């Protein structure tokens, strides 16, 4: 539904040239929720703005719903953009207008007549749970309600794709959860494809089907979330399962095991110690609900000979568990 191929963008800042997007390729399937995560300055905003050509790439192609946007200009581009909704961290609403007035604005610009606008805004406000606030002014609303208006406005033209630029970053945790729940419902009920950028791993964990990690204008890891969590050496794992710093080196081997949909690591640990005559200590465990499944990562310290440790790791892998050797005994 969204494909970026080898997209690059360089800005000229006072301090010199900044390569905000460096050969970025990305593919979002129809109906998917795709999250791009990264620190401030990684290039996330430039990436999402490139998808609807708010930021025109220097090179590469952007295709949305079969239309190559990088090849369009003027009226063609405006038409194609109507199929792409966007929501923002600061909502970007017109404060002086009513809720309904904000939702109808894009339809007014698109030349939709008054009666059709009214019908459509009523429909969409019901979808986001704001029917009883239709006549309220924007400044009277809470942050969560404002974002619901933002979502309703973005969906008024019936887009296939919704772009979300840090849509929950200005909201408290409870309101964030309700907005993420709404996005999930719209994805399921309307088949809406969602591409979002965020610096919060919790947003990715609770909402996304797939994710990409950006650093210095590049995508350094990407894939379906359920594949990423079982990748032993995933770059996103430390943030997906925060286990803290490794202890100081003390001549032992440290491994991390990923469990998907498994209730407890206890039998694995005791069996490991028994079978391989190793000392096994549990250094930490993090369990998260990812994609609706309980997924966990356990960090274990193994004390034994190199051969015992190798045999233990092979045994765990043989049981279908993902094992990363995060520190070798020296
Ligand atoms: N219009 C611009 N002119 C000059 N430099 C820019 C411009 N827009 C972005 N940059 C630079 O490009 C790099 C990527 O910025 P971008 O805003 O895409 O990152 P980000 O990951 O979205 O960060 P944040 O979360 O802080 O917005 C940064 O170094 C930024 O300073």
From TrEMBL:
<protein>
    <submittedName>
        <fullName>ATP-binding cassette domain-containing protein</fullName>
    </submittedName>
</protein>
<dbReference type="Pfam" id="PF09383">
    <property type="entry name" value="NIL"/>
</dbReference>
<dbReference type="GO" id="GO:0016887">
    <property type="term" value="F:ATP hydrolysis activity"/>
</dbReference>
<keyword id="KW-1003">Cell membrane</keyword>
<dbReference type="InterPro" id="IPR027417">
    <property type="entry name" value="P-loop_NTPase"/>
</dbReference>
<keyword id="KW-0029">Amino-acid transport</keyword>
<dbReference type="InterPro" id="IPR041701">
    <property type="entry name" value="MetN_ABC"/>
</dbReference>
<keyword id="KW-0547">Nucleotide-binding</keyword>
<dbReference type="InterPro" id="IPR017871">
    <property type="entry name" value="ABC_transporter-like_CS"/>
</dbReference>
<dbReference type="GO" id="GO:0005886">
    <property type="term" value="C:plasma membrane"/>
</dbReference>
<feature type="domain" description="ABC transporter">
    <location>
        <begin position="2"/>
        <end position="241"/>
    </location>
</feature>
<comment type="function">
    <text>Part of the ABC transporter FtsEX involved in cellular division. Has ATPase activity.</text>
</comment>
<comment type="similarity">
    <text>Belongs to the ABC transporter superfamily.</text>
</comment>
<dbReference type="Pfam" id="PF00005">
    <property type="entry name" value="ABC_tran"/>
</dbReference>
<keyword id="KW-0067">ATP-binding</keyword>
<dbReference type="InterPro" id="IPR003439">
    <property type="entry name" value="ABC_transporter-like_ATP-bd"/>
</dbReference>
<dbReference type="InterPro" id="IPR003593">
    <property type="entry name" value="AAA+_ATPase"/>
</dbReference>
<dbReference type="InterPro" id="IPR045865">
    <property type="entry name" value="ACT-like_dom_sf"/>
</dbReference>
<dbReference type="GO" id="GO:0005524">
    <property type="term" value="F:ATP binding"/>
</dbReference>
<keyword id="KW-1278">Translocase</keyword>
<keyword id="KW-0813">Transport</keyword>
<dbReference type="GO" id="GO:0006865">
    <property type="term" value="P:amino acid transport"/>
</dbReference>
<dbReference type="InterPro" id="IPR050086">
    <property type="entry name" value="MetN_ABC_transporter-like"/>
</dbReference>
<dbReference type="InterPro" id="IPR018449">
    <property type="entry name" value="NIL_domain"/>
</dbReference>
<comment type="subunit">
    <text>Homodimer. Forms a membrane-associated complex with FtsX.</text>
</comment>
<keyword id="KW-0472">Membrane</keyword>
